[in-house]
Design brief:
12 helices, globular, alpha/beta, eight-stranded mixed beta sheet, 46% helix, Rossmann fold, 397 residues, 15 strands, Immunoglobulin-like
């Protein structure tokens, strides 16, 4: 049975800005308010246990009333989920005389720990055991690549895998003999399809109305610039951002000249931040005299951070992508905050719309209502990409 009322909240940001502290503090506050809460990490550093001030083994550990923490055992979950893929890769490396121990290390897919943490989130979400699930994500770049993976795999499953599977099946004996290594069997392809289906379900959860991303940063110009790019890319892939945490802000009442310089610099960046992220809540976390460790310190940190605001309020119901009618046109709009026309490239390929922003690309499969329409214009204005379609009279005749 799939949960429909579980609040899912992802914390991301540049490394070292306090993501883990913010995620753990929010989780501790949630549990203190009587909500069944799970906090987990997709960051291979696994610093959640350190933040909680406790030892956490494999699986889910209850560290306080209503508060559970999970650190994912990537190796065990990988063997359970995709053993067929790993066994095939081991057979290929064995045929190439690679040392067995080295071969086993080589068969661990890069990023597997982060992927499996998201699958663990899916399992927790479907269990109905939690009211709130909080995810401490890896630094921004890794998180964006991870969240883009389901759509990339969708393209591979739809466009490449069927043909690849037919060729391998037909030519397996010849290819095996010619190449000197075993060709993948149906079990390998089935495992790839299972992985795709798993990640597609994760994406449905993370783009649901009760799921959102919270960006954590420190008031530094370089960090804020990365946060702006993160908001653009998260919107590109259809994820809602519900707020920004500005962490490690110096108090303004100090008399020390050195501190006054930092206060002034941070003040300028915070003003820019408020101007940039208009419409989103911005929570300010004061610089702590010591790192918050343990439930009591984390709860105090989160209390100062959110004040009287609801830290788990549902995100805006506005969908990052909308389709509307305007006279004889159909308009597809995609939220791309901070994007300019110089950074956006748009290509129509049959039933797909390829949207590229900087180095990130999203392949949008057009709904049936638009697949036979012609693109008659497009532009970026006020942080939104607008693509105008007109029905192809020749095709509709």
């Amino acid at each position: 049975m799939t949960s429909t009322n579980t609040r899912v909240l992802l914390f991301t940001g540049k490394g070292g800005v306090g993501k883990t502290t913010s995620a753990a503090g929010t989780a501790t506050l949630s549990a203190a308010n009587g909500l069944r809460t799970l906090v987990m990490s997709t960051d291979a550093a696994h610093s959640l246990a350190d933040a909680m001030g406790t030892s956490i083994g494999d699986g889910v550990a209850e560290v306080a009333e209503n508060l559970h923490v999970q650190q994912v055992n990537a190796q065990r979950m990988f063997e359970d989920s995709w053993g067929d893929i790993q066994h095939y890769m081991l057979s290929v490396l064995g045929a190439m005389d690679v040392d067995p121990i080295a071969a086993e290390e080589l068969t661990i897919i890069p990023g597997a720990e982060e992927i499996l943490a998201l699958l663990a989130l899916r399992d927790a979400y479907n269990s109905n055991d939690y009211d709130v699930i909080i995810v401490d994500c890896a630094p921004t770049g890794e998180t964006l690549r991870l969240l883009a993976l389901p759509e990339v795999m969708q393209w591979y499953i739809d466009k490449v895998l069927p043909a690849e599977r037919r060729v391998i099946r037909a030519l397996r004996p010849v290819l095996t003999k010619a190449a000197g290594v075993p060709m993948p069997g149906d079990g390998v392809f089935d495992a790839i399809v299972r992985l795709h289906d798993d990640l597609a379900e994760v994406r449905r959860i993370l783009t649901s109305e009760l799921a959102s991303v919270r960006v954590v940063l420190t008031p530094e110009a370089v960090v804020v610039a990365e946060a702006r790019r993160s908001l653009t890319m998260l919107s590109l892939f259809g994820y809602r951002v519900d707020g920004v945490i500005a962490n490690r802000v110096f108090p303004t009442d100090g008399q020390d000249p050195w501190l006054a310089g930092w206060v002034q610099q941070q003040s300028v960046v915070l003003d820019d931040l408020r101007d940039s992220f208009t419409g989103l809540p911005i929570w300010v976390g004061p610089y702590q005299s010591a790192e918050p460790v343990g439930g009591e310190a984390l709860r105090a940190f989160a209390g100062d951070l959110y004040g009287d605001e609801d830290a788990l309020a549902a995100p805006s119901s506005e969908d990052p992508m909308t389709i509307t009618r305007e006279a004889d046109l159909t308009v597809l709009e995609l939220a791309l905050p901070f994007a300019t026309k110089e950074r956006v490239d748009l290509v129509r390929r049959g039933e797909e719309l390829v949207v590229t922003v900087d180095s990130y690309r999203r392949l949008l499969t057009l709904p049936t209502s638009l697949s036979r329409h012609d693109v008659v214009g497009a532009g970026v204005k006020n942080g939104r990409l607008r693509v105008r379609f007109r029905v192809n009279r020749r095709d509709s005749a």
